[in-house]
Sequence to fold (99 residues):
Amino acid sequence: LHHLPARYEHETAEDTIASLVEDTIGSVRGVVVASNWASAGGFARGRRGRFQAVVEDATGRLHLVWFNAPWMRDKVHPGATVRVQGKVKRFNGYPQMAN
Fold:
C-alpha cells in the first residue's frame, strides 16, 4: 500500500520582501516582529477571528493573516525566524499573505 501526497507544491527560491509582486506566489524569510489574535467580536463565538503577524527582512515588512486559526498563537512568536510562501496581495499599503 502506497501513500502519495494529495498535491505537490513547488518550493520557490526566496525573495526579499521589497521584490514581491502582487498576485504572484512568493517566498520570503524574515523575523517576526509582532503577532496578535484579533477576535471577530459581536455575535461570533468560539474560535472565530484571525491571527496576524508581521515579518521583516532588511528590505521591508510583510503582513501575514491566518483566519480561524487560534492554534497559531502557540506557534508564531516575535523574534522567531520564519519562511513563508503564498500568494501576495496588497492591504492597507503593505504586502500581505493570507491563508
Observations:
- The first strand starts at residue 25 and ends at 39.
- The chain has a mean pLDDT of 88.
- DSSP finds no helices and five strands in the chain.
- The radius of gyration is 15 Å.
